[in-house]
Amino acid sequence: MLLILLGVNRINAQWDLSLNMGLDFKSAPSYRDYINYNHVSTSADLLPSFKSSACFAGEADYKLNPYFALGIEYNFQIDSYNNTYSSGGSYQISYNLQRPSIVAYYILPGEGYQFKFGGGVGLRYVSLSESIYSATKYTATGAGFLIKCEGNTKLSDHFYALIGVNVRYDITGKLINPIQNLINSESGENVNLNSVSIGIYFGITFIL
Predict the structure, then answer these.
(1) What are the tens digits of pLDDT across the range 85-126?
(2) Which residues pair with 184 in a beta bridge?
(3) How do residues 145-196 score in pLDDT, each as one tens digit?
(4) Cα separations in angstroms, 27 against 17, 63, 78, 164, 206
(5) Which of 77, 144, 186, 204 could staple 170 via S-S, CB 3.0–4.6 A?
(6) Segments forming the whole domain that contains residue 178
(7) Is residue 157 part of a domain?
(8) Rounded CA gap, 100 and 102, in Å?
(9) Number of folded domains in the chain?
(10) Is residue 180 domain-resident?
(11) What are phi and psi of 28, to 5 degrees?
């Protein structure tokens, strides 16, 4: 990695490389209704309209000039739910949502800091596992959109602290496997992980 960064520096490219982690506060109505209608024993176990999920991301941005940049972001969201039935036995469901995106930014540079405002689009891939008596796996693919705002504050010559917020709309499509789709027995509809989310994240940026 060090050799790659030195090589990039020699050709006078301007890059922002960042790693971050944070929380998404998301509303996924189809997923929520499926759990609440089919796998909740008491009202205390109901999923709320908005639920928090952990996410992790890495990004590489290339500055076309001091005020504009193009980047590639890879974001990974994870979530799970488990419950014990009153009649005995347990229920578990978990998924990860991969959210690679191409992002365009407008940059406000300053002495020892920069602000970036942008938006992007990309593919979405879901891997979900549900366990009642045995585990069953489902997948889904789709697309998503995002709007981001982040700030970088200088820590040393090349390292900056990062804080940001984003808004995302992800359309994943129905969850399927080679044998069956995931169906909400209450409504008879296919379950999906379409969601709207607001996220906050913290990390570090290496600026070349």
Answers:
(1) 766 678 899 999 999 999 999 999 999 999 999 999 999 999
(2) 189
(3) 999 999 999 999 899 999 999 999 999 999 999 999 999 988 899 999 999 9
(4) 30, 34, 14, 20, 33
(5) 144
(6) 19-141+165-207
(7) no
(8) 7
(9) 1
(10) yes
(11) -125, 85
